[in-house]
Amino acid sequence: MKKHKKDPLYKSFGYAFQGIYTCISKERNMKIHCCVSLLVVIAGIIFQLSVTEWCICLTLFGLVMALELVNTSIEAVVDLVTEERKPLAKIAKDTAAGAVLIAAIMAAIIGCVIFVPKVMQFLTGL
C-alpha cells in the first residue's frame, strides 16, 4: 500500500480559505449572511454590546456561515453525482438548506432578543 504525502498545513488553510472565498463570491445566500453580519457588527458597536452578547453574535455568525458552506458543498456533490432529478438528491439538498434556514431563523430571533431592548431604550431616551 502506497502512503500519500499530506499537504503542508499552510496549504490546508489555503484550501479552506479558497472554499470560503468561492462560497462568498458565488452564493447569493452567503453574501446575504455576510451583509447581515456586518450590519449586526455596526449595530453592536453603536449599542455597545457586552462581551457575552458579542460572543453570542459571533457564535451565531459562525454557525450560520459554516452551515451555508456545508449546504453549498452538499449541493455541489449531489450535482456532481447526478444531473437527474432523484428523490434522494432532493432530500439531501432540501435538508441541508433546511439546516441553514433553522440556524438563520434562530439567529434572527436571538438577535431580536439582544437588540430590541437596546433599540427601545434608545427610542425612549429621545
TrEMBL record:
Cofactor note: Mn(2+), Zn(2+), Cd(2+) and Co(2+) support activity to lesser extents.
Sample GO molecular function, one term: metal ion binding
EC numbers on record: 2.7.1.107, 2.7.1.66
InterPro entries attached to this UniProt entry: DAGK, DAGK_sf, UDPK
Residues passing through the membrane, by range: 34-67, 96-116
Membrane topology category: Multi-pass membrane protein
Named cofactor requirement(s): Mg(2+)
BP terms from Gene Ontology: phospholipid biosynthetic process
Principal place of residence: membrane
Enzyme class: transferase
UniProt GO cellular component terms: plasma membrane
Binding-site positions, a divalent metal cation: E27, E75
Amino-acid positions noted as binding substrate in the UniProt annotation, renumbered to this chain: E68
Subcellular location(s) per record: Cell membrane
UniProt family annotation: Belongs to the bacterial diacylglycerol kinase family.
Name of the molecule in the record: Undecaprenol kinase
Gene source species: Coprococcus catus GD/7
Lineage, broadest ranks: Bacteria, Bacillati, Bacillota, Clostridia, Lachnospirales
